[in-house]
Amino acid sequence: MTTIDTRFSSAAATAVAAHQAHQANRPSPAQQQTAQRLLTGANYAMLIFLGAFLVVAYLAWGLEAEFPLMTVAVLHFLQIFLAGLFKLSYVVRLIAQHLLGQQLR
To answer: Could you list the residue ranges that cross the membrane (predicted)?
Structure first.
């Protein structure tokens, strides 16, 4: 066997192995269904946390004179907490998109 034949067979073997690995990484229909449910849940969670954040922000900044200081402090804490939950939902959404083979956005 010549050097060229050896290189070609090595490259072909590598390509076949890469193709088999790609096929092995393809999720099953059950995994795709789970990832789709995860994506839907993450999208709904993002909407809920955004809505809750906007309500809390309005209460904390627009009606702060109507509440005692401790309530305003809790509302400000909730803004930070809800923003964190929104970001966590976004990360779960990215994971679901990755599992489905979608473009991450």
So the answer is: 41-61, 67-86
pLDDT in tens, 75-104: 999 999 999 999 999 999 999 999 998 888
- CB of 41 within 8 A of CB of 93? no
Domain annotation covers residue 53: yes
* Model confidence pLDDT, tens digit, residues 7-31: 556 655 665 555 454 555 677 888 8
Q: Which domain holds residue 43?
A: 28-100
Distance CA 34, CA 17 (A): 28
Q: Are 86 and 50 in contact (CB under 8 A)?
A: yes
Q: How many domains does the chain have?
A: 1
Residue 28 per-residue DSSP state: P
Token pair 């779960």 is found at: 92
DSSP state of 101: T
DSSP letter at 102 equals P
Report the amino acid identity of residue 36. Q
Q: What's the token pair of residue 104?
A: 């991450």
